[in-house]
């Protein structure tokens, strides 16, 4: 592993020489949720608002103005509906 000038740790895939993060993001944003579920932004924000109030169907974190959705809880929700997983 090497360390770039921005102190971001990366690993190199020796097969194709592509740098990628050495860690996997644990959250997705609302715009990602729109794509994953194939719904509109308004519907996604409604779903997030309901999830914030009840903790279901997934966990929502607010950090400043950012809305982050736990990828683990989103995967559990998707799997319970038979829709697969988010990688």
Description:
The protein has a single domain (24-87), classed as Arc Repressor Mutant, subunit A (Orthogonal Bundle). It is 37% helix and 26% strand. The protein contains 3 helices and 6 strands, in the order E-E-E-E-H-H-E-E-H. It has a 3-stranded antiparallel beta sheet, with no helix packed on it. A 3-stranded antiparallel beta sheet has the order 4-6-5. Strand 1 and strand 2 (9-13) form a beta hairpin. The two termini are 23 Å apart. Residues 1-13 have low confidence and may be disordered.
Task: Give a quick precis of the structure.
The protein is of the alpha+beta class. The protein has helices at 30-37, 41-54, 71-80; strands spanning 2-3, 9-13, 18-21, 27-29, 60-63, 66-70. The two termini are 23 Å apart.
Number of strands: 6
CATH topology descriptor: Arc Repressor Mutant, subunit A
Q: Work out the strand percent.
A: 25-35%
User: Which structural class do you get from the secondary structure elements?
Assistant: alpha+beta
Q: What's the average pLDDT?
A: 81
Q: Kindly provide the radius of gyration, computed on alpha-carbon positions and rounded to a whole number of angstroms.
A: 16 Å
Low-confidence runs (pLDDT<50, min 5 residues)? 1-13
Question: Looking at the structure, what is the overall shape?
Answer: globular
Instruction: Please outline the major beta sheet.
Output: 3 strands, antiparallel
Tell me the count of domains.
1
Strand order of the largest sheet: 1-2-3
Order of helices and strands: EEEEHHEEH
Number of helices: 3
Which CATH first-tier class would you pick?
Answer: Mainly Alpha
